Amino acid sequence: MAYNFLQFKSRGEQVVEWLAREYSNIRTGRAAPIVLDQVQVEVYGARQPIKHVANINVENSRTLRVSPWDKSQIKALETAILSANLGLQAIVDGEGLRVVFPELTGERREQFIKIIKVKLEEAKVSLRKEREKTWNDIVAKEENGDITEDEKFRAKEDLQKEVDAINGKLETLAEKKEVELRS
Question: How high is the pLDDT of residue 27?
């Protein structure tokens, strides 16, 4: 009986998705509404994502327009964006906010590249933990007599192939983001 790797594959894809989300928050000098997705704003006594209280549109390549549905929340939006420490500038005008993305300096690019590598390593650590859980499950199945020793070693090889495939996806994401930052 061959070992079923569906759970491992599912967890591996979750790690890939997590890394992609993390990388989408690393800005490259171009205005992208997704950068504000993680920002929470305090409105009506509760914390909510900005996209639940305002429209976010790209005004030009370096500026986002944030238009709150309730104009009395402009100050709360400004505070939330500035306190999120994204390195963005929020300028209040009559209709809402302009969020300006500053030009990336060489030094800032290098800082972002370091962050990319740290996030990649975090994803790889998560994947290693999942590999360990799966390997422990394979060993337990062999000890219980559910699979033979040959099947255990075959499963180990298959597990490593799955890990290598997911690591390849993680590396590809990191390389793409690094190229995006350097250009």
Answer: 66
Mean pLDDT of 146-168: 94
Average pLDDT score over residue span 123-148: 94
Nearest alpha carbon to residue 175 among 115, 117, 106 = 117
Our CA angle for 9, 148, 136, nearest 5°, is: 45
Q: Where are the domains of the chain?
A: 6-24+105-182, 33-100
Tell me which DSSP letter residue 52 carries. Answer: G
Structure token pair of residue 54: 């305002």
CA-to-CA dists, residue 54 to 27, 43, 82, 159, angstroms: 21, 11, 16, 45
126: pLDDT strictly greater than 80: yes
CATH assignment of 6-24+105-182?
Answer: 1.10.132.20
pTM score over 0.90: no
DSSP 49: E
DSSP 121-161: HHHHHHHHHHHHHHHHHHHHHHHTTSS-HHHHHHHHHHHHH
Instruction: State percent of the chain over pLDDT 70.
Output: 97
The CATH fold assigned to 33-100 is Gyrase A; domain 2 (3.30.1360)
